[in-house]
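Intended use. Records like the one below are meant for learning the mapping from a protein sequence to its folded structure. Do not use them to infer anything beyond what is encoded.
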Amino acid sequence: MKKIVLLGLLISASLMGKEIRDPENIEIGITQIIEHPALDSARRGFEKSLKENGYEKAHVEYQNAQGDFATAQLIGQGFVQKKKDLIFAISTPSAQAAYNATNTIPIVITAVTDPQAAGLVGKNITGTSDMMPVSEQLKVVKDILPKVKKIGVLYNTSEQNSQIQVKTAKEEGIKLGFEIVETGVSSIGDIASGIDNILGKVDALYIPTDNLVVSATPLVIDRAKRAGKPVIGCIEDQVKQGALVTKTIDYKKLGYQTGEMAIKILRGEKPENMPVETLRDMQLIVNKKMAEKYGVNLESETLKDAKIY
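Structure written out for the chain above:
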């Protein structure tokens, strides 16, 4: 009798376009472009979402491209060959590599600034964007560092995510009376010379959500400290390490939200019917020691609700 009831449920679910699958038989591939706190947090949030929503027994394979796009492409192709049920791609390069590899396996993305501009639009892809409030970040600089006129931006020239943010920073900078000075790099080896070159031309340094540059945060902050230039970061961990301030999102929450979207797909939803989502919960974070160093008033109206380290 129980078998008949179960068969009836399966037929009913099939008719509704929903396939009931045992989580133990589900294969998920996670591809990440490089290791750094924001992307790692997004991955942990995704995995937490799976565990808390009945998919703790799903088979998850994680691979990191260590900053190399060619390796990211190989990872994507490998997941396709292994016939993964779903691919979770963290960062724009990883998402592009996965999307280049398949137009049939569902892909959920995160830590992508502008999916449409990055060409990440199709029937098998959706996820979350980490579009940062560049205008709000620069407005904080204007409020707490009124003497700053020139802001430097260090970014990876091959990362479209970063190019979009630099363009936005320039546009928003004009409105706020800032001159944005940009310096592009293409590898970890270029960062030291790139940062030294730009610090002599600006009053402060702004770091966008650039995977290459963020992965070198200790180096960037150390060079900026030596030059006596405040750093405006893009993630919380950078403030912990010595950046003055950031206004950012919680990447673990963003990853968790992406995991919830993945679960809907595994339960039968189609990615094409799921718009890309964002996390609207922003937080202002300040480093107390750096605030004191640069004469920032922690009691100001701008910082009244800030999280202080």
